[in-house]
Specification:
Shape of chain B: globular
Number of helices of chain A: 13
Oligomer: heterodimer
Largest interface: A-B, 17 and 20 residues
Helix content of chain B: 40-55%
Strand content of chain B: 15-25%
CATH superfamily of the largest domain in chain A: Type I PLP-dependent aspartate aminotransferase-like (Major domain)
Number of domains of chain A: 2
Strand order of the largest sheet of chain A: 4-10-9-8-7-5-6
Strand order of the largest sheet of chain B: 1-2-3
Shape of chain A: globular
Radius of gyration of chain B: 15 Å
Largest sheet of chain B: 3 strands, antiparallel
Distance between the termini of chain A: 32 Å
Structural class of chain A: alpha/beta
Chain lengths: 423, 151
């Protein structure tokens, strides 16, 4: 396993926290398997991350030893299960520096978290009101707002993008105005890798008295995110992209906002009292968690956060930054390859999408797979981004704490093979 | 699984040098089909004269499998009867859904037999089928149009 070395005479960044990628890889059983006769090169972590043994064990141990439903039983197992579930909530709250654990609502995924906010805000919206998103959004941060606007008569508006793959904030003053009720923007783009600077948007949102939501699905797994520091009202993210299991996502919202919102779905666990003539609702977060929640998944997510914290989010962010710098240089050597998104490792995450002259991403992905290299191809659930840059589809390589420079090399070798085949 | 089982020489040939590409007049019906999971699309026209398919023309964007498939279909079925085209459609669909267990019939499918390997890649079956589904749709519509004219 080689490590990156910075040439003598250059800044050595010795004060930056580091991680031992070889040791980390040993914690992920799947990384030692082969695919199509080659060592697995997993470059699809923006799609879903792999899971360390500690997360797999936590879920298994929960089912083996503590399984019971939560928040309704007086028996011992029910108490253990409830403590584990609420413990995971507290862990997640601490991880994003939420002032109160009750501000963390467990959902099915980030998509459901966004839909929850869109649904619960409906009663406050009408014709003349505006919602602002951007052209950079995942479909999950477009469609719920389109549906909301159809239901309420509100208008959907959006930030455009610059040629270099960043939010075009030149019209922020006009776009966010006194008619704006909510701005919902992706924090780190799942296609371009761009990390959006939010300061100007936040300032304008506060000026006009709107609400700010950030889709942090591609941020929270990769770098420390502090909801107080960012001065946001809601964030959404998902467990399976941050070493946790599928089936659990998170909505974080300011408590006073959540407390003022009507329920999303009705059912068990979300009520205060139910009579045939009417129902009153529980306080947040229970109000938004109708039915039996994803209990084992919450336990798994808690274990994932523990794992990330033990490695250190600053070390993970630095590792990914170095890797991204390496990959941007390496991909630059492939003739005919065009990167969509920032071409410098500044203000961007470790997700790199590109097109290869005249070769469809499906074919790129298929040949790479035959070499064990797993990348995502297609429109990445963000068709407007592809349209903006004039491509029907893209190939995307995305990295995480367990990704190595050798894997980047394998990608580049694979791309040369693709070109030999289709060129 | 060897990658060249999927990317047979015939497929790569049709992809690099497609036959019948470009939309042409006259035509009896035009359809537009999209593969929503990957964004591949095709616009396909058929010209039908009585029982005879006199032209199949198409335009679109997509991977080698989807584009080669349209080229093969043009070459195989232009000048044949509507019945032949529907029979080839049924045979090709069966081949694609056969998980690699079906022996293709060259008499019916011509160069289409090169797609036998695609059936072993479930994620790519829909790419191969895109043009064929569009063809069936277009044929059905052209028959409706001509029935409507008679009525």
């Amino acid at each position: 396993m080689t490590t990156l070395t910075i040439p003598d005479g250059m800044p050595q960044y010795s004060e930056e926290p580091r991680l031992d990628v070889a040791r980390i890889r040993q914690d992920f059983p799947i990384l030692s398997r082969e695919v199509n006769g080659h060592p697995l090169v997993y470059l699809d972590s923006a799609n879903t991350s792999q899971k360390p043994q500690s997360v797999i064990d936590a879920i298994s141990e929960h089912y083996a030893m503590h399984n019971a439903n939560v928040a309704r039983s007086v028996h011992t197992l029910g108490t253990e299960s409830t403590e584990a579930y609420e413990g995971a909530r507290a862990t997640v709250a601490r991880f994003i520096n939420a002032p109160r654990p009750e501000e963390v609502v467990f959902t099915k995924n980030a998509t459901e978290a966004i839909n929850l906010v869109a649904h619960s805000l409906a009663s406050r919206l009408g014709p003349g009101d505006e919602i602002v998103i951007s052209e950079m959004e995942h479909h999950s941060n477009i469609v719920p707002w389109q549906l909301l606007c159809e239901r309420t008569g509100a208008t959907l508006r959006w930030f455009g993008l610059t040629e270099s793959g960043r939010l075009d904030e030149s019209n922020v003053e006009e776009l966010i105005n006194e008619r704006t009720k909510l701005v919902s923007i992706v924090h780190t783009s799942n296609v371009l890798g761009t990390i959006n600077a939010t300061a100007r948007i936040t300032e304008r949102v506060r000026e006009v008295g709107a609400l700010l939501m950030l889709d942090c699905s591609q941020t929270v797994p990769h770098r420390g995110f502090d909801v107080v520091d960012y001065d946001v009202d809601f964030i959404a993210f998902t467990g399976h992209k941050m070493l946790g299991p599928t089936g659990i996502g998170v909505l974080w919202g300011r408590y006073e906002l959540l407390a003022d919102m009507p329920p999303f779905q009705g059912g068990g666990s979300m009520i205060e009292t139910v009579r045939m003539t009417g129902t009153t609702y529980a306080a947040p977060p229970a109000r938004f968690e109708a039915g039996t929640p994803p209990i084992a998944q919450a336990v798994g997510l808690g274990a994932a956060v523990d794992y990330l914290e033990a490695i250190g989010m600053d070390a993970i962010a630095w590792h990914e930054k170095e890797l991204t710098a390496y990959a941007l240089d390496a991909l630059d050597t492939v003739k005919g390859l065009r990167i969509a998104g920032p071409k410098v490792p500044v203000g961007r995450g470790a997700t790199i999408s590109f097109s290869l002259d005249g070769i469809h991403p499906h074919d790129v992905g298929q040949v790479l797979d035959s070499l064990g290299v797993q990348v995502r191809v297609g429109h990445h659930c963000a068709k407007p981004v592809c349209e903006r840059y004039g491509v029907p589809a893209l190939t995307r390589a995305s990295f995480y704490l367990y990704t190595t420079t050798e894997e980047v090399d394998a990608l580049v070798r694979g791309l040369e093979q693709v070109k030999r085949m289709f060129g | 699984m060897q990658i060249d089982q999927l990317y047979q020489e015939i497929i790569l040939d049709h992809y690099k040098h497609p036959h019948g590409r470009g939309l042409r007049e006259p035509y009896s019906a035009e359809v537009h089909h999209v593969n929503p999971t990957c964004g591949d699309e095709i616009t396909l026209r058929v010209a039908v004269d009585g029982e005879k398919v006199t032209d199949i023309s198409f335009a679109g964007q997509g991977c080698s499998i989807s584009q080669a498939s349209a080229s093969v279909l043009h070459e195989l079925l232009t000048g044949r009867t509507v019945g032949d085209a529907l029979a080839a459609h049924a045979s090709f669909t069966e081949l694609m859904q056969g998980k690699g267990q079906i022996e293709p019939d060259e008499e019916i499918l011509g160069d289409g037999i090169a797609f036998a390997g695609v059936a072993k890649y479930p994620a790519r079956v829909k790419c191969a089928l895109l043009a064929w589904m569009a063809l069936k749709d277009a044929l059905v519509r052209s028959v409706e149009v001509s029935d409507g004219n008679k009525g």
